[in-house]
Specification:
Layout (H helix, E strand, L loop, with lengths): L2 H12 L13 H19 L7 H4 L2 H5 L4 H7 L3 H8 L19 H19 L7 H4 L2 H6 L3 H6 L4 H8 L20 H15 L5 H7 L2 H6 L3 H8 L3 H12 L4 H13 L1
């Protein structure tokens, strides 16, 4: 049976001119081919959905309400598998507004979530590694259909990126820092040293003590650090710097380590 004949039968079923599909219509590889013809016809012609819009406009009910559930059940397919049969390899399950049932469950779901986020970062958007902390934020997950992965992996851009690239980034590097990040003395120290010596290029804590201004935090998008760690008060910042100066050779260590990295 050719494509036109298959579509004619399907249209008759949709129009209720036929109560059901012919016997043995969906048997074997030929039946799967007929399913492909029907699915493409339904989405592209009958519903006029652009192919690139399929993940955003198509869910299980779209297919089941147009008489594709009974043949799908013959193959044991969920709605995504029906679409994948029609467009092999074109879409990932997580791209859809409605992920297949149990897709994110268990350890396999976690692995899929990590793979999905990594795919978007590396292949779809091709982010340079240094830009990941600034671009992987709450909006990133919503924009790219990764809400399920976001929920499964901990609701934190840093925790998710850490699962994909262990030990590469620090939490304070992210546009949306994890909760309680600025209550951690080690993270405050790392962020401040990076800010003072790498971004503002001060040569010492003494120089930073004399020249650092409140608007420097704003200029480098570190208002969260300024507010949460120092209560938005420069006196608290200066007290923190004085504390570092009392740590003996701490200043020499950090300044030297930064100079070595710049050589």
């Amino acid at each position: 049976m050719n494509k036109e004949q298959v579509i004619e039968i399907y249209q008759d079923v949709l129009d209720k001119k036929r109560k059901r599909f012919p016997n043995y219509f969906f048997v074997g590889s030929e039946g799967k081919k007929y399913m492909r013809y029907m699915t493409c016809y339904l989405l592209e012609k009958h519903l006029t959905i652009p192919i690139d819009e399929i993940p955003f406009q198509v869910g299980a009910n779209t297919l089941w309400s147009h008489r594709l559930r009974p043949p799908a059940m013959l193959y044991g397919w969920n709605y995504y598998e029906v679409i994948d049969n029609a467009y092999p390899g074109k879409f990932k399950p997580w791209q859809f507004q409605q992920a297949p049932n149990k897709y994110w469950n268990g350890e396999e779901g976690k692995r899929r979530a990590i793979e999905a986020v990594k795919y978007v970062i590396e292949e779809k958007l091709e982010f340079p590694m240094k830009e990941i902390p600034f671009k992987v934020n709450f909006h990133f997950f919503k924009q790219h259909g990764l809400g399920g992965a976001f929920t499964l992996l901990g609701y934190s851009p840093f925790q998710i990126v850490e699962a994909i690239y262990p030990g590469i980034f620090r939490p304070w590097q992210f546009a949306h820092v994890p909760m309680n990040c600025w209550k951690n003395e080690e993270y405050i120290r790392e962020a401040m040293d990076h800010f003072l010596f790498k971004q503002l290029h001060f040569s010492s804590y003494e120089e930073a003590f004399l020249q650092l201004k409140g608007n420097d935090f704003t200029d480098f998008q570190l208002t969260g650090l300024f507010q949460m760690a120092f209560d938005s008060r420069m006196n608290n910042v200066r007290e923190w710097i004085k504390k570092q100066l009392k740590n003996g050779d701490a200043e020499l260590f950090y300044v030297n380590s930064i100079n070595e990295k710049n050589d």
